[in-house]
Specification:
This protein is an alpha/beta fold. It is built from 20 helices and 14 strands. It has three domains: about 100 residues, no CATH class; about 170 residues, no CATH class; about 180 residues, Dna Topoisomerase Vi A Subunit, Chain: A, domain 2 (3-Layer(aba) Sandwich), CATH 3.40.1360.10. About 50% of the residues lie in helices and about 10% in strands.
């Protein structure tokens, strides 16, 4: 306590009693016997009270006896001698409203109800989206330079209705719905939600919900600061909550959504939100058409990087069916540059793929469906998870390449031992049907305590 607070022992003691009350069974109505909320006066709790050279002793008595006179607390005295030594102060649970008012404090239940009210706005399913969603629409219109006028009222209303339908569909289930139900359940059970919510700042929780809803429903590519302007009319606000938002997206997503293993930046990229321009690197064999300009990959020693902004204009030319004998995705950049195989179209993934890269892969598969599709990555848990996720998200039958027992034997001297987390993950993967094709190598890794980065393989 600082010096100013110390002088108001009555408010300080009452505030601590309310803290204790809000963490008690009495607060949640779960007490099976009569209980009281009290604070024992000890040298640890209030040392100045026991300091003979301190004038606090008299101040404490005066202030707390006045507080007792107001009917907010009851004092228990040592050996029953009033005016002697206070043993404990007991909160009067019948005068709680007055106690909260006395210290200018909001009830914990009021704070919880405010948060629950925001959740209800998002989950009521009453045909209306949260009022905050209107701000999102207005922010997007402002960012795009559209002027509001009476004549465009019907169009704006139509757009907002369509957006509201999306929001309600997401809130009914999905990531945001899962998160809000988690918060609701914990609050109703009297459990902490401090990891995600400051109970004293309901406005911040509303902004978090706005940001999550906007991320989940985002369909167009945006840089993160542009996105923040569209949603909040503030270029930096979303970055302040992005870490918490991506944490929620990761934890409350379904396994099938493929977000569990991604870092924060990769999660945002899954929803078309980027910190910087993204590029797809492609080399080897094949012919591309970019806005009417033909690019023969064989003529470029190390390929070409295509901006995500240009990807919609990229077409795979039909003659690629003849020149391309296999399509290979590569996890890491060094291995991409080093990779060389005749008649192979090679695409750099940069770890986990994102929507931009999946879009290109699907375009390639549409034009060239009859060649082998292979993935070359690290021979570790992450590498095989990327391979499995790639197959699931693109629906292309990728096979692992240079990720087998032969490579572990040939380059094992450059490998590393498995961590305990690796071992747990491999055991899970061995039981998962999605990794059936990788069972032999996963079993070898486990039995030989070995994993290998793809840069070691030449």
């Amino acid at each position: 306590m600082n010096e100013d607070v110390m002088k108001r022992y009555d408010d300080w003691i009452l505030d601590r009693l309310l803290d204790k009350y809000e963490h008690s069974l009495l607060f949640y109505g779960k007490n099976k016997v009569n209980i009281s909320v009290a604070i024992n006066f000890t040298k640890t709790f209030i040392p100045e009270y026991f300091n003979e050279s301190s004038v606090a002793y008299t101040d404490i008595h005066t202030q707390l006896e006045d507080l007792e006179g107001e009917g907010l607390i009851r004092l228990c005295w040592k050996n029953g001698k009033r005016g002697g030594v206070i043993e404990k102060a007991v909160l009067d649970s019948g005068r709680l409203d007055e106690a909260y008012a006395r210290v200018g404090r909001r009830k914990k239940s009021d704070k919880a109800n405010e948060i629950l009210g925001i959740i209800e706005e998002y989950t009521a399913g009453n045909g209306k989206a949260p009022a905050s969603e209107k701000g999102e629409t207005e922010g997007r219109e402002k960012a795009e330079g559209r002027e509001e006028a009476e004549g465009n009222g019907e169009a704006a209303e139509s757009e907002e209705k369509m957006h509201n339908v999306q929001v309600e569909a997401e809130c009914a289930g999905g990531i945001l719905g899962n998160f809000l139900e988690f918060v609701r359940t914990r609050l109703e059970n009297g459990e902490s939600v401090a990891r995600y919510i400051d109970m004293d700042d309901a406005a911040a929780f509303r902004r978090l919900c706005e940001g999550l809803s906007a991320v989940i429903n985002n369909k167009s590519e945006s840089y993160i600061r542009e996105f923040s302007v569209q949603v909040f009319n503030d270029s930096k606000l979303f970055e302040k909550i992005a870490g918490k938002a991506t944490d929620i997206l990761r934890i409350f997503s379904d396994d099938s959504q493929g977000l569990k293993e991604l870092n924060d930046e990769q999660i945002l990229e899954e929803f078309n939100i980027y910190r910087n321009p993204t590029y797809v690197c492609i080399k080897g064999s094949g012919t591309l058409d970019i806005g009417g300009n033909r690019i023969v990959l064989e003529r470029l020693k190390d390929g070409i990087g295509i901006s995500s902004d240009d990807l919609d204009r990229v077409k795979i030319c039909p003659e690629s069916r003849i020149s391309v004998g296999t399509v290979v995705t590569v996890e890491n950049l060094t291995s991409f540059h080093r990779f060389c195989q005749e008649r192979a179209m090679v695409i750099y993934l940069a770890g986990y793929h994102n929507e931009v890269k999946r879009k290109l892969l699907k375009e390639i598969y549409t034009v060239i469906p009859d060649v082998p599709y292979r993935h070359f990555g690290d021979i570790d848990c992450g590498g095989f998870k990327i391979w499995e996720n790639l197959r699931e998200r693109t629906e292309i039958p990728f096979e692992p390449m240079r990720m087998g027992i032969a490579e572990l034997k040939a380059y094992g001297a450059f490998g590393r031992q498995l961590s305990e987390t690796d071992r747990k993950e491999i055991r899970k993967m061995l039981l998962c049907p999605a990794y059936a094709e990788a069972v032999p190598v996963l079993g070898f890794m486990l039995s030989h305590n070995l994993k290998l980065e793809q840069e070691c393989i030449v």
